[in-house]
Amino acid sequence: MTTPAKVWLRFFLIGYIILMALWIVSLTSPVPYGDLTRIGRLSEREFGWTAPPPKVDPAYLKGTPVDQADVLVIGDSFSMTFRWQSVLAKAGYRVSTTYWGQYENALCSDFDQWIERTGFKGKLIIIESVERLLGDRTKDSMKCQKMIRPFDAMDHPLITPDETVPSPAPNWNVQFLTGITTYYNTWKAKKSATDIHFDWNTWVRPVPDGCKLFSHRSCDKMPFFAEDDDNGPLTPAHLEWMKNFTKAHSKLPIMWMVIPNKTTVYLKPDYSKDFEAGFRTSGLTGPDLYAFTREKHTQIRDFYFSNDTHMSMHGQLELGERMLAAVREVVPTPPSKSP
């Protein structure tokens, strides 16, 4: 006869074996190195990029104190690696970078006075925003009267991107169910012929000619950030705020740098078409990055990261070249190089 103690021990051993199996599966799952593979719990073996990115001399990845800068960048995560700014630095421009998030994602009515207090004596301010966040930043800025937080520029990148494909390593910080969830989500994504949604705002969608555009194994499909769709397109109303802001703060030239969403670039090129058309004829200073990304994403493999929502380092350096051309139209020669 089976005693209660033996029954309990049997269930304990079965549970222990199951938990150990789940832990081993999770432990051997590659550590995520992309935002979308991490939050969507998708395999880096299938969706991680494999083409090593170009390397940048660390000498061009150092921020300049704002009172010594030629160009001031107010940006978001697309500027946190300093990679596109490195092209300006290599050309001799001294660049100081700060971020929307440090100031509650708003540029307020006293913007000119705030800039004056920084000691900035340069020739150009670049305001950079990804498409999906500019709408909310516009709304917050319209309501904001005073920049409360003091200016704070970074002297180094906030994000240090991988310069080689990360090697497989044990995932020691993983949860028990992460591995099996990752395997299941990846299997489901590969099997699906249509768009499919996963945890934490991640879509996996078929991409036409995807294997010509990306280096990852499952290159016919791609993770995308749900906020690209959920936050809505940019409109002429957003453009009107940009025009009014530029006019109200005209002491220094302002250049606008609106970076299209990954979903816009690869799947929905007309997503913000009214804003895009209006920007071209608005008189605002700044390159048309919709046209730029529309052209370059078919020419540069892994122009955006396969496993992330951001532009890759291949793309960022090409973006830097485009921004350098735009900066030279306003400031032809770096002031630091002027006689």
Would you kindly provide a written description of the structure presented here, covering whatever features stand out?
With 339 residues, the protein is an alpha/beta fold. It has a domain at 58-161 and 230-329: SGNH hydrolase (Rossmann fold), CATH 3.40.50. The chain is built from 14 helices and seven strands. The protein has helices spanning 4-27, 35-40, 44-47, 83-90, 111-118, 131-143, 178-191, 210-213, 227-230, 236-248, 262-266, 273-280, 289-296, 313-330; strands at 71-75, 95-99, 124-130, 196-198, 202-206, 221-225, 254-259. The strands form two sheets. The chain has a four-stranded parallel beta sheet. The protein has a three-stranded antiparallel beta sheet with strand order 4-5-6. Helix 1 crosses helix 7 (178-191) and helix 10 (236-248) packs parallel to helix 12. It is globular and about 85 Å long. This is AlgX/AlgJ SGNH hydrolase-like domain-containing protein. The chain crosses the membrane at residues 7-25. Keywords: Membrane, Transmembrane, Transmembrane helix.
